[in-house]
Amino acid sequence: MSGLAKRQIMYLPGVGPRRADVLRKEAGILSYEDLLYYFPYKYIDRSRFYKVAEINMELPYIQLRGKILSYATVGEGRKRRLTARFTDGTGVIDLVWFRGISYIVEKYKVGVNYIVFGKPSEFGQSFNIAHPEIDLETNAAQVAGGLTPFYNTSERMKKAYLHSRAIQDLQYVLLNQSGWTPEETLPAYILKRTGMIPLSEAVRQIHFPESAEQLKAARLRLKFDELLFIQLHILQTAVTRKHKSAGLICPVVGAQFHTFYNSYLPFALTEAQKRVVREIRRDMGSGRQMNRLLQGDVGSGKTLVALMAMLIAVDNDYQACIMAPTEILATQHYHTLMNMLGDMNLVVELLTGSTSRKERKRMLPLIEEGKADIVVGTHALIESSVVFSSLGLAIIDEQHRFGVEQRSKLHLKNEQPPHILVMTATPIPRTLAMTLYGDLDVSVIDTLPPGRRPVKTLHRYDTRRQDIYTFLRKEINAGRQAYVVFPLIEGSETLDYKALEEGYEQFCNVFPEFKVCMVHGRMKAADKEAVMQKFTSGESHILMATTVIEVGVNVPNASVMVIESAERFGLSQLHQLRGRVGRGSEQSYCILVSSCKLSADTRRRLEIMVETTDGFEIAEADLRMRGHGELEGTRQSGPGFDLKIADLAADGQILSYARNLATEILDADPSLEAAENDLLRRRLHDLFANKVDWGTVS
Ligand code: ADP
Ligand code: MG
Q: What is the rounded average pLDDT for all residues in the chain?
């Protein structure tokens, strides 16, 4: 009876309206099916029984067999708790409860044989277990058979008696007493070919594993299922998009492009840049709407590629725009473009949040009438007052800093969607890119411009400040400039700004002979710009900043990057920051300053930074250390696939396999019309019918 899949969870025996409400709010569980797909996050082997005499704090969980000797309540009011003396003959341990006291006393009788399971904690000379799980010894076969699943539960869930064990009990009811059997999602030919176990078997084993082997087979099946359907969805959307969204055609590569290429190009393009420009040219001329992600490590020269793409649009009588996440960056792009374009006959405008009203009044009509060829800006570009005459290409720089919605608004700036190029320096590991951007074409700039020397990275404890100062003095005296960056973490902003300001004072004292300046997010745009200008022109020697300089700033003469409290930054953020130096031909340095007290993880992060400058390697390491959910730069840009069981960091192979199979299936049967693909089509519809079509908003 597949109709029960969507049945409200409230109707499952043992749930009811109140717990249904908690399940919905806390765990997103609305239906029978949602509950079934609420998988355990770990399993603990409960086949082993311990003796009270053996208990030690090294054991994360213990399971005992024995009797309650007596109960006692201690404390008053909110501090009231119930303790039970429990023994197995080898010693005595306390079981403790802070809630549900009368229920416990009623339910578990003195002198009866029980199995007790829980986390031991040390309490003075002895141990106790708070809120243990208790079962009748006679149920041993059922509860202590082996692997016990653990489900994520929040405080609110626990208050509604929806702790891990209760969730498992609900799964039991669902699988055995609800009258619902989940319908198989894979056609027989795929099951046969892949050797996967049936879905009904997999969901049973995932909640009630009979053995480690069976659990493994179940996890594999469910991971594969999850990834296969995501891939089918992405590939199918991509195919329809290619058929449906006819693109603005930019067939000519004309005067502006050629003039620029032949007479204004400040340096020879790298092979990688050439290749990417070719890919973009091909896309824009193809008659299909371009949806391309350009990945290139920091400093790889994406801006130049962006400019050349914009010239193609202009050559075909379209306008082009480039949107950057910060004013500093937008302004810098504007200056860079103006510099590179020199006296070419083009109208380039800069529009940001702090563009004056008068300026806007002058500029907006130019944009609307099509007289402005290129518009550079921040989020200000997507405001409804900005109307283009014919936007042919929209470029989004550092795309991970924008939300999907902001990006899609840009998409709507023309009647027929403009070509879209999104650029990112956050190298996204292959496995993740396949899942997140499966429907985008990806270009990669994989080589840096010639003459760059890899940045040397050093890790120093903050007790060795004097050495750092000496080094900075030497570099600056040799004509270089330096950045000093302080963390700015949400929630501790006030303290962080204080650290920056104190640091600034200190540097001013230590380096009276140099010009030190400071920039941070609380300053007015005009002031920020003035400071950046001084640093860019070389007038000031040391720029102290919060992470506002993280993205995109380009000052080739700066050769030292000092990162204060480096332990508080994530790996890809450190990599981004380091990318600010090493842009000229001088040897550059990145100095990671941390305290001496570091966790093993943090120490490893800093070591990775010292060991490699390869952005992809760093991103992979980041993915491994943190799990994909937290990978910087993907939080906003993910298409909202909430992976329930697959783990992109660990399941790359399953993903590739699913991807290949999905491609094969769709090649043979693009709309999944064949009878043998019936199940696939229905399941896809079930899973994604109500989702936004991410393919068109990237
Ligand atoms: P990113 O990819 O991080 O946005 P930029 O576009 O800011 O990098 O380029 C970094 C630096 O490299 C800039 O100073 C730019 O002028 C320079 N650059 C870009 N392309 C080349 C090239 N082909 N040869 C030499 N230098 C280049
Ligand atoms: Mg850039």
A: 87
User: Where do the domains of the chain lie?
Assistant: 48-144, 220-245+643-697, 255-445, 456-612
- By most ligand atoms within 8 Å of CB, the mutation choice from 300, 304, 326 for ligand 1 is 304
Residue 129 and residue 119 in contact, taking contact as beta carbons nearer than 8 Å: yes
Per-residue pLDDT reduced to its tens digit, 422-442: 898 876 666 666 666 666 778
Q: What is the pLDDT of residue 154?
A: 86
Give the number of the atom of ligand 1 that is nearest the alpha carbon of residue 451.
25
Could you tell me which residues come within 8 angstroms of residue 540 by beta carbon, excluding any fewer than 6 positions away?
Answer: 481, 515, 516, 517, 531, 534
Contact present, 306 and 506 (Cβ < 8 Å): no
Strand 113-118's sheet: what is its strand order?
A: 120-123, 126-130, 92-97, 81-87, 62-74, 113-118, 133-136
The predicted-structure confidence for 107-116, as pLDDT tens digits, reads as follows 999 999 999 9
Dist. CA 474–CA 495, nearest whole Å: 31
Judged against a pLDDT cut of 50, whether residue 629 lies above it is answered with: no
> Which pLDDT band holds residue 696 (cuts at 50, 70, 90)?
very low
- Considering the domain 255-445, what is its CATH architecture? 3-Layer(aba) Sandwich (3.40)
What is the SS3 string spanning 574-637? Answer: HHHHHCCCCCCCCCCEEEEEECCCCCHHHHHHHHHHHHCCCHHHHHHHHHHHHCHHHCCCCCCC
Measured CA to CA in angstroms, residue 610 lies from 120, 459, 559, 578, 590 at distances of 41, 7, 16, 11, 9
Tell which one of 264, 275, 297, 303 to mutate to probe ligand 1, the residue whose CB is within 8 A of the most ligand atoms: 303
Q: According to CATH, what is the number of the domain 48-144?
A: 2.40.50.140
Specify the residue with its C-alpha closest to ligand 1, atom 24: 449
Q: How far is the CA of 133 from the centre of ligand 2 (A)?
A: 55
The single-letter DSSP state of residue 560 is: E
Question: Span 87-109, mean pLDDT?
Answer: 91
CB 410 within 8 A of CB 422: no
Topology of domain 456-612, per CATH? Rossmann fold (3.40.50)
pLDDT digits (tens, 9 = 90+) for 264-308: 998 899 999 999 999 999 999 988 888 888 988 878 899 999 999
Given this chain, do its domains 255-445 and 456-612 carry the same CATH topology? Answer: yes
Which ligand is nearest to the Cα of residue 557, counting in written order? 1
Q: Is the Cβ–Cβ distance between 112 and 67 less than 8 Å?
A: yes
CB under 6 Å to ligand 1: residues?
267, 269-270, 273, 296, 298-304, 425, 449, 552, 554, 556, 583
